[in-house]
Design goal:
The structure holds 2 protein chains of 2 kinds.
Chain A: E1 3-7, E2 11-13, E3 18-25, E4 34-41, E5 47-54, E6 58-61, E7 69-74, E8 79-84, E9 93-101, E10 107-112, E11 116-121
Parallel strand pairs in A: 2-11
Antiparallel strand pairs in A: 1-3, 3-8, 4-5, 4-9, 5-6, 7-8, 9-10, 9-11
Chain B: E1 9-12, E2 18-23, E3 34-39, E4 46-49, E5 63-68, E6 71-76, E7 85-93, E8 98-101, E9 105-109
Classes of the chains: A mainly beta, B mainly beta.
């Protein structure tokens, strides 16, 4: 059973960089056949896809966040990470990591982490 | 403002059937599969329907999805109190080159 777990600071100062890590267990992020995503949800609001990383480190980002986002992977630790630069209060949200499977058709966001709330303080 | 449009709320009584709509455009729903997620307060979303109408293992057949043109629907039959949750649709958008979601529909089972 695949499990994902987000970790990182719950409070970030405005203008600084938000950094989160997603640790994957029950499967290798380097095995291919999966996209590893970051998704966020503003308090009381809907879901917003941030981007993904997949085999060999290729990435795709939400155009609205692309200039501030970097998603990377550490295959030795079976983790992938999110960095969001120059944060403002508008970046306060619950951040989720999630897997998409592409082995037998495309199954988007089939496994999710529990989510972690990151608040941006002024 | 979400790219995909859902009604903000829906309410039905137990045992009834409810349909939740998701409206998009030719660059998302009109050309790509639609997926649905169920979310309870304080928890992560759960995949409910993928590829327009396929259910992951473990999802009851009371849940079904359909698509026509640039719109999609999630239907829940035989409503139960435990179905009370938020429901989101999602699709890849070829113009934005990324995933887009609906704003979510809060389902109340009276």
């Amino acid at each position: 059973q695949v499990q994902l777990q987000e970790s990182g600071p719950g409070l970030v100062k405005a203008s600084q960089t938000l950094s989160l890590t997603c640790t994957v267990s029950g499967g290798s992020i380097n095995s291919g056949g999966y996209y590893w995503n970051w998704i966020r949800q503003h308090p009381g609001k809907g879901l917003e896809w941030i981007g993904y990383i997949y085999h060999s480190g290729r990435t795709q980002y939400n155009p609205s966040l692309k200039s501030r986002v970097t998603i990377s992977e550490d295959t030795s630790q079976n983790q992938f990470s999110l960095k969001l630069n120059s944060v403002t209060a508008a970046d306060t949200a619950v951040y989720y990591c999630a897997r998409s499977a592409i082995l037998t058709g495309y199954i988007p966001f089939d496994y999710w982490g529990q989510g972690t709330l990151v608040a941006v303080s002024s | 403002q979400s790219v995909l449009t859902q009604p903000p709320s829906a309410s039905k009584t137990p045992g009834q059937r409810v349909t939740i709509s998701c409206s998009g455009s030719s660059s998302n729903i009109g050309s790509n599969s639609v997926n649905w997620y169920q979310q309870f307060p304080g928890t992560a979303p759960k995949l409910l329907i993928y590829s327009d109408n396929r259910r992951p293992s473990g999802v009851p057949d009371r849940f079904s999805g359909s698509k026509s043109g640039s719109s999609a629907s999630l239907a829940i039959s035989g409503l139960q109190s435990e179905d009370e949750a938020d429901y989101y649709c999602a699709a890849w958008d070829d113009s934005l080159n990324g995933w887009v979601f609906g704003g979510g529909t809060k389902l109340t089972v009276l």
